[in-house]
Amino acid sequence: MKKIGFFIMNIESAGGTERVSINVANALAKQGYDVSFISIGGNKPFFQVDEKINIYAMNKLPYSLKKDYFSITKKLRKLVKELQLDTLIVVDGAIMLFSALALVNLHVKHILWEHYSFNFTGNRLVRTLGKYLASTRCDKVVTLTEPEKTLWQEKFKTNNIISIANPNTLLPKNKLAKWENKTILSVGHLFSYKGFDYLLKAWQVLAKNHPDWNLKIVGSGEEEQNLKNLAKALGIEDSLNFIPRTNDVAFYYESSSIYCLPSQTEGLPLVVIEAMAFGLPIVAFNCSPGVKQLVEHKENGFLCEKNNIEEMVNGLDLLMNNPELYQQMSDKSRLMSENYGIEKIIEEWKAIL
């Protein structure tokens, strides 16, 4: 069976990128593929990895391109040769700079799996160069949505771009979300581009009119203290819970009512797909093609103008006040989530390996 390597920034991270990469790797391993992870960071995954999968760590985070570029590239090339990989899947365009050189003349299939929106501005220079290298060096570039695929094709005039959606493997076992839980949930890294400050400002308005409801934010990150300070300044501490990152996110989906996504940018957010599977209606900023694909306005939730707090408040308020509307949107979320089953999507991956 083919030998597949996943080259990832840090398998120890607890984000959606890491979770969905592990989900796909686990599914391939279960079907007999010889799968490995090569992590620039550590080797202790936050999410469960199939016991048949080997993890090779460079322990080079944080790294400096100036100081560490050649050492990381050299280590990557050495591992690819030792493992005799047939295919290397690069998880995130920001690390294309290493694989583009490491794979020269190795006759290894080279695939970029881009999780970020095409227009994401973080680390702009590195990502721009990564996109160019992927368009010229990779056998395939995998985007998460058809609109993202089109953006790549229009920019680089190449036919090696395909789209494969993120698969969901987290399904409800016993309980589903329900209106009676009276809880709004948001999950993610506490980074500035996740937009949790907008959610807190929206919650300040809602909490006054819905004293029996509460907001839960699950995640960890560099903005945690700033967000807690903002919550205090807004006077919403008593109705808000910050919960550290967890492996048991299913508990929070099933014990909540509505999912809110205040992000400034996203790819195809796995947390939204998971929340839909548990029957949560979604209220989200329209920040990317992926979010627009998942949230059908007034069908399974509300798609709000980016950074428009008033629209977010109105969408949440409608669901909080109307159990019948809530149930309609909850049912629609569950139905739509079925499009992202692992069985279908893993076949799309197998077709390009």
Q: Summed up, what is this model?
A:
This protein has 353 residues and is an alpha/beta fold. It is 42% helix and 17% strand. It has two domains: 3-164, Glycogen Phosphorylase B (Rossmann fold, 3-Layer(aba) Sandwich), CATH 3.40.50.2000; 179-339, Glycogen Phosphorylase B (Rossmann fold).
Judged by helices, strands and strand pairing, the structural class is: alpha/beta
The radius of gyration over CA amounts to 21 Å
**How many strand units?**
13
Roughly what fraction of the amino acids lie in strands?
15-25%
Uncertain spans: none
Number of domains: 2
Q: Can you count the helices?
A: 13
Sum up the overall morphology in one term: globular
Helical coverage, percent range? 40-55%
Enter the CATH topology name of the largest domain. Rossmann fold
CATH architecture heading of the largest domain:
3-Layer(aba) Sandwich
The main β sheet shows up as: 7 strands, parallel
Widest sheet, order of strands? 3-2-1-4-5-6-7
CA distance, first residue to last residue: 11 Å
The overall pLDDT average reads: 96
Q: What is the succession of H and E elements?
A: EHEEHEHEHEHEEHEHEHEHEHEHHH
Please give a structural write-up.
It is a single chain. By secondary structure, the protein is an alpha/beta fold. The chain folds into 2 domains: 3-164, Rossmann fold (3-Layer(aba) Sandwich), CATH 3.40.50.2000; 179-339, Rossmann fold, CATH 3.40.50. Helix content is 42%, strand content 17%. It has 13 helices and 13 strands. The strands form 2 sheets. A 7-stranded parallel β-sheet has the order 3-2-1-4-5-6-7, sandwiched between helices. Strand 5 (109-113), helix 4 (124-137) and strand 6 (140-143) form a beta-alpha-beta unit. Helix 6 crosses helix 11 (309-321) and helix 9 (270-277) crosses helix 12. The model has no long low-confidence stretch (mean pLDDT 96).
